[in-house]
């Protein structure tokens, strides 16, 4: 890490610490920009990553995507180009050196707009890339991240400058080593965009059974091609993807809506409560009720 990079990270850490003094994930006055602040190790926590870039300036985090392990810290940034169910765990954090990070969410339309303005094209028929990746932090990306976060110091500048600075961040990401993976998610007709359509369908209908042929029709692919490309983008099969979404939604119902195990199982699409309980325990480490009681005790 160069002295200039270290200095920029210190500036960014100071802004995050100032505008996100509380524990956890906090919204900022800049649309789609979030700050994360943890004073102790945390997790593993399961959730769905939306398309976004996450930059850590202090601490270390591990993401599990399917069976893949992505480890990143201040020397890296992480990009999710599609909605992905993951497990995340903060590995390094303390009261004296808290975990500090910023997360900027974006949409396919925003990526496509930047691509058009910069005349960025992708190779037609190129195989899809993994929908989440870690890359070494580059000075231009860190520089523009500092400028975006620093707009919080002058809120009157946010409406005009924040959209422009966000465009610059997306441009830098598209110019990076894995930029094609990000570009493909936005281009109509690309393999990744067609897999994104399938992901959206599963997310919107996770509580319903589906035939793999239906998903292949949505993607405009053969069944075997869909399986191959879906696994390449998400690191899991469509059925595994749906199961993770179902179980995460069930946990939310149990934890925040006080649903009982049977109601939660039925609401997310399980016909067998016993099967639901087995798969829930396999994913979260404990049977449903025991898991929820444990989480509530941790909060007290």
UniProtKB/TrEMBL annotation:
Transmembrane segments: none annotated. Keywords: Transcription, Transcription regulation. Residues 196-294 form the HTH araC/xylS-type domain. The keyword Transcription regulation applies. PANTHER family: ARAC-FAMILY TRANSCRIPTIONAL REGULATOR, TRANSCRIPTIONAL REGULATORY PROTEIN. This is AraC family transcriptional regulator.
């Amino acid at each position: 890490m160069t002295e200039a990079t270290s200095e920029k990270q210190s500036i960014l850490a100071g802004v995050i610490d100032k505008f996100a003094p509380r524990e956890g994930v906090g919204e900022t006055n800049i649309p789609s920009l979030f700050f994360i602040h943890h004073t102790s190790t945390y997790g593993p926590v399961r959730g769905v990553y939306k398309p976004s870039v996450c930059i850590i300036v202090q601490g270390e985090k591990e993401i599990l995507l399917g069976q893949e392990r992505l480890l990143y810290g201040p020397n890296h940034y992480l990009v999710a180009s599609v909605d992905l169910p993951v497990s995340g765990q903060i590995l390094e954090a303390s009261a004296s050196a808290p975990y500090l990070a910023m997360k900027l969410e974006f949409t396919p339309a925003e990526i496509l707009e930047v691509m058009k303005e910069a005349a960025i094209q992708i190779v037609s028929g190129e195989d899809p890339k993994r929908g989440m990746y870690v890359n070494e932090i580059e000075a231009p990306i860190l520089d523009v991240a500092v400028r975006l976060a620093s707009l919080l110091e002058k809120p009157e500048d946010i409406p005009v400058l924040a959209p422009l600075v966000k465009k610059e961040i997306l441009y830098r990401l598209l110019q990076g080593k894995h930029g094609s993976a990000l570009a493909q998610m936005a281009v109509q007709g690309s393999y990744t965009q067609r897999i994104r359509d399938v992901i959206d369908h599963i997310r919107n209908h996770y509580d319903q059974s589906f035939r793999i042929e239906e998903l292949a029709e949505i993607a405009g692919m053969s069944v075997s091609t869909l399986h191959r490309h879906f696994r390449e983008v998400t690191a899991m099969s469509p059925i595994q993807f749906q199961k993770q979404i179902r179980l995460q939604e069930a946990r939310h119902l149990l934890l925040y809506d006080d649903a009982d195990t049977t109601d939660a199982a039925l609401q997310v699409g399980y016909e067998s409560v016993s099967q639901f309980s087995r798969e829930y325990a396999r994913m979260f480490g404990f049977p449903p009720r025991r898991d929820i009681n444990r989480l509530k005790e941790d909060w007290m």
